[in-house]
Amino acid sequence: MLYLAIESSCDETAVAVVSSPSGVDEFEIRSNVIASQIDIHAKFGGVVPEIAGRAHIEAISSLAYRALADAGVSAKDIDCVAVTSEPGLIGALLVGVNFAKGFAYANKKPLVAVNHIKGHVAANYIEGGIKAPFIAFVASGGHTSIIRASSFTDFETVGRTLDDAIGEAFDKTGRKMGLTYPCGAAMDKLAAKGDPEAYKMPPAHIRDGSYNFSLSGLKTFTINLMNTAEMKGEEINFNDLCASLTKSICDSVAHQLLRCLRDSNINTLLAAGGVLANTHLRRTLVRMCDKNGIELHMPPPYLCGDNGVMIAAAAKYEFEAGRYADMSLDGAPSSKDDWKRC
Ligand code: KG4
Ligand code: ZN
User: Fold this and answer.
1) 301 pLDDT exceeds 80?
2) Residues 95, 143 share a domain
3) For site-directed labelling of 290, which of 122, 181, 227, 256 has its Cα 20 to 30 A away?
4) What pLDDT does residue 335 have?
């Protein structure tokens, strides 16, 4: 089976061609092309939805045909067209959804709609060897979710952020430090040179027995530290601040995930999303899982951010479960799994 997968939910237009034999958990990435809009949005300090939609329109067609050419195939060779339909920026989603519908209709191919969060988790399926049930953790610029998955197609969100996503907290505090959007990767490097105990930070999770997170208190605390120092003419050590902020986030993630794994009696954790490129978070999860006998899967960093490969991997299981979409498919900015952008 040859999948053409399209992702356009936020600020990356991405298309991949992936082959996978029916009923077998094996994948071959035939092509994986991404048109990033980061440079366009960087000057605004965040994603501008209207600009994102327009940039997707400009990129989508040539990118899709480049993905086919890179894979050495043509439209007629494709067996299934997959597309992210929710959640995300509506103007951005609609570009991918309408292109996928047009391509599927014109070439008489089946169409599969993919939830973006499920897609991030599916980046882990590429390496193979994963068995459900598992707990999944997705952290990106728009999402922070803990999911209980009974199969590759049945996901239940059991925890999420009640305000900012983890990536958003990095991006907004990083902006105050004068870093360029998106700030996560730069803060990862600064944190490596800092003392994580230098500042005592509030936690990034809610202490009410749920598996939820709240990042706004931590974000405001971090920004206020910088504002106060500025007013007093004091210098803040950004390395220490990034290290302390990152430690609070890592501790909260580990705390909530371990509770959820134990309460659910599940021993497999799949982590994914752009923030999982963070070296400190990856190390924290490796340590936590080693110590507690949990099998941990994380995608390689190049599959952590938005990409078409993960959409193809998720689509395979939706397709094999007979969950097809039709020409009435629409984009949805939020879904029952999550409600924020991306
Ligand atoms: O999954 P993604 O590419 O797009 C969304 O769906 O949002 O995630 C982007 C987010 C941004 O907030 C970015 O700052 C963050 O992932 N990010 C990181 C790192 N690399 C990217 N955050 C922390 N450490 C990193 N190394
Ligand atoms: Zn994403």
Assistant:
1) yes
2) no
3) 122
4) 67
